[in-house]
């Protein structure tokens, strides 16, 4: 950072997800110096994480180096560190790379998987929150198919080919659809598995899928998944998974070697350290200005913040974080200048969820879309939102290749879990 | 595999590197059934491994799934397994996925890093033999530069920015050149490091670089590396590295946090299990027919095999393995049919080593090439040899982008070694 910025007020941003990234960019021309703190040196495009998990794209195609993003922004410094806590009195962030004093703090620490207290019972469940998780899911799925092809015992083979996905929200729907296409359209050419051995089970605790969408679109989604061979269990609760059997609340036990937990998220625990009470999902309650009530110099946005508008909590979506990040940046500048702050108003640009080839659901401008039109919108929006020309071009190539030739990009087991003798252990 | 192949003689191939891959492909139309055994589910294009290590290409761009390669080959089965030993009497391979009986065996297990008995002293050295190694090197380099930028102590900063590469063969030269370009042309834009802090040291035990090439080309290479700021130490022997200091045989100690060992390879220890005496580098001595003298049904090729031609040992090169694989396949068929076997004759197509942008050395058809012409040949040959259109197109895009914009592909620290508090520990 140039020396001329040293005396300006210091804005510290925690997290380089959609919220933190947009807050940081919006402060490019503001009379402040900015430190962006993250434990990774890249911005992760989370909406496509499920495609890394299902071999559709390569991990580095959805990650973009922070230094490259902010190369032109002279008032910004990047600090790789784990954040430990916030010292309100001393106005400093306590991190693994030392204390970082701030004049204003924007907390955009994102979310973590919510296992609802079942951590011990779900010790063997796979998650999907970061790049390592996603690569682990891909390796695990490919490994199970590989081992199933070597397995002579029919029961053991079926268990390896049973994939249980918990959570009927967009992530659960996306994984189920993509996994079905990966196994039936791609892997089956190499392994010639008996379709009867193979099962994808989508388990949802409520009475329907995709509660963000209309019942009509939820119905469209159910029938599309059904056609893909995905079995949907509504009003079902998973209570445990020991790596061999998934247990449901009603006592049923399903032999399966894979459980992917997409049933809930909660704010990153750091939100609780913001010195203000937390609400649902551990999100910190903020004022309409995005400030925490107790510490006006601390702002919270995105998944970390609990905000109600028209009596409804704003959901944990990229768009909420993006708009919140931009608004927090403007309010931070006003705050530091002693000017009155503006309340945040979220403009819903619409909601999208994809199911598979030529199939998605969307609610845009009050209209319900489904099938090819919704899918086309989804593809364009996601390519457009990716950061960097390299990633846009590469993801486009992967998708066109996959679309035309049914050839998934990354069928590589980069790390074998439990080494190869796993086949003999069961 | 189709049932009609079940009664054919069984050829088992160990290893899916250049040798095993080409042997397997050459047996496509032969009256045999083939089992290809490897611990990975992909063929690795080793010549570009150093580019993964220096952020030039993505790991999955140089790995190609074995199942995709052999999709059309009906007489071949792939078995993912760790090979334990060979049971000569019972004619079976003992693996982590069970015993595999064979009628003929082609041993193409490749090579491993040779630390010449200094394993304990070089415990902290980085290697470059597989995809995990290469990603670890990339993460480590990016991490050191990141931590150096946070380091206020000048000595500690210099140690983080000192990269010692051991071995003046093609791999050592390639890493040195690529690392210099990564740090000086790419990372420096983001970190603005003092060039005086930064050091790449290439240490070679003999009196010159690239002993495979003429002294003239070795001289060209030395001056090209010198211009890139690489310091070359000839006749120097590294005897230890504890993670903080590199020690040389003459007693000198060089503060450095990175040592990359490219000074030697030896045959995979499995070669020693072939039941025949081993020669230099642990390679198994074979007859001109590529058979082991003691067990005519066991063939060895590539890095695993010791073969002399015109009084010279064939080197551990991709081309030797490729031609050996094809020849072993033909001889295996003759052996199983009771026909006389043919001796293997290696045709040297030339040797290439790259130094960096527009710079390589080559010895082709008796001619020494250097500079841009050699580099252009190198680029074309390597793109051409990559397997699969996806990988060719993607690597081409990465290289064009890097060439035009000095923008390395994968500046992602996918895994932070020793976590972030490393900065405080030293």
The dominant shape of chain A is globular
Determine the N-to-C terminus distance of chain A. Answer: 56 Å
List the chains of the largest interface with their residue counts. A-B, 48 and 49 residues
Strand order of the largest sheet of chain A: 5-2-1-9-20
Number of strands of chain A: 26
Structural class given helices, strands, pairing of chain A? alpha/beta
Arithmetic mean pLDDT of chain A = 91
Largest sheet of chain A: 5 strands, parallel
- Please indicate the percent range of residues of chain A in DSSP E strands (runs of 2 or more): 15-25%
Low-pLDDT residue intervals, each spanning 5 or more residues of chain A: 419-426
Q: Tell me roughly what share of residues is in helical segments of chain A.
A: 25-40%
Number of domains of chain A: 2
Enter the CATH topology name of the largest domain in chain A.
FAD/NAD(P)-binding domain
The number of distinct helices of chain A, counting runs of at least 4 residues, comes to 11
Descriptive overview:
The structure is a homodimer of 426-residue chains. Chain A contains eleven helices and 26 strands. With 426 residues, chain A is α/β, with parallel strands linked by helices. Chain A has two domains: 3-39 and 81-113 and 265-336, 3-Layer(bba) Sandwich (FAD/NAD(P)-binding domain), CATH 3.50.50.60; 131-263 and 351-416, FAD/NAD(P)-binding domain (3-Layer(bba) Sandwich), CATH 3.50.50.100. In chain A, the strands form nine sheets. A five-stranded parallel β-sheet of chain A has the order 5-2-1-9-20, with helices on one face. In chain A, a hairpin with a 2-residue loop joins strand 24 and strand 25 (359-364). The longest helix of chain A has 22 residues, at 170-191. The interface between A and B is large, with 48 and 49 residues.
């Amino acid at each position: 950072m140039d020396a001329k910025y040293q005396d300006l007020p210091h804005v510290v941003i925690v997290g380089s997800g959609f919220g933190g990234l947009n807050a940081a960019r919006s402060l490019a021309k503001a009379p402040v110096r900015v430190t962006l703190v993250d434990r990774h040196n890249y911005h992760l495009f989370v909406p496509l994480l499920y495609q890394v998990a299902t071999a559709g794209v390569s991990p580095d195609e959805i990650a973009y180096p922070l230094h490259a993003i902010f190369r032109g922004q002279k008032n910004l410094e990047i600090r790789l560190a784990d954040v430990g806590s916030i010292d309100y009195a001393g106005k400093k962030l306590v991190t693994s790379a030392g204390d970082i004093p701030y004049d204003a703090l924007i907390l955009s620490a994102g979310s973590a998987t919510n296992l609802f207290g079942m951590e011990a019972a779900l010790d063997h469940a796979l998650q999907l929150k970061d790049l390592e998780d996603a690569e682990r899911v891909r390796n695990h799925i490919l490994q199970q198919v590989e081992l199933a092809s070597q397995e002579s015992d029919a029961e053991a083979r079926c268990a390896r080919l049973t994939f249980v996905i918990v959570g009927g929200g967009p992530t659960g729907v996306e994984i189920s659809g993509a996994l079905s296409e990966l196994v039936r359209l791609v892997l089956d050419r190499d392994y010639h598995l008996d379709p009867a051995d193979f099962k994808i089970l989508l388990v949802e605790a409520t009475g329907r899928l995709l509660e963000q969408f209309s019942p009509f679109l939820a119905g469209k989604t159910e029938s599309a998944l059904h056609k893909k061979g995905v079995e949907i269990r509504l009003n079902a609760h998973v209570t445990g998974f020991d790596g061999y059997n998934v247990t449901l609340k009603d006592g049923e036990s399903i032999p399966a070697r894979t459980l992917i937990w997409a049933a809930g998220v909660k704010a990153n625990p750091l939100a609780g350290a913001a010195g203000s009470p937390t609400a649902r999902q551990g999100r910190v309650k903020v004022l309409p200005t995005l400030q925490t009530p107790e510490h006006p110099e601390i702002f919270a946005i995105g998944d970390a913040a609990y905000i109600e508008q028209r009596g409804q909590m704003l959901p944990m979506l990229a768009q909420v974080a993006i708009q919140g990040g931009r608004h927090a940046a403007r309010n931070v500048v006003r705050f530091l200048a002693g000017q009155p702050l503006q309340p945040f108003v979220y403009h819903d640009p619409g909601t999208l969820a994809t199911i598979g080839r030529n199939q998605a659901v969307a609610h845009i401008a009050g209209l319900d879309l489904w099938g090819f039109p919704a899918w086309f919108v989804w593809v364009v929006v996601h390519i457009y939102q990716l950061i960097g020309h390299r990633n846009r071009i590469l993801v486009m190539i992967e998708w066109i290749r996959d679309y035309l030739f049914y050839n998934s990009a990354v069928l590589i087991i980069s790390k074998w879990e439990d080494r190869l003798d796993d086949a003999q252990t069961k």
